Amino acid sequence: MRKPRSINIRKREQGVVLVMSLLILLVMTIIGVSSLRTSSLDMRIVANTKEQVSAFHIAETALELAMEDAGNDLSAYEDAITSGSDATVISIAANASPHPLGMTGTSATVIAQDQGINEEAYAKGSSIKFKARRFKLIGTAERTGSHAKDVHQRGFELLVPGA
Question: What residues have CB less than 8 Å from 70, skipping those under 6 apart?
Answer without folding.
Answer: 77, 89, 156, 158
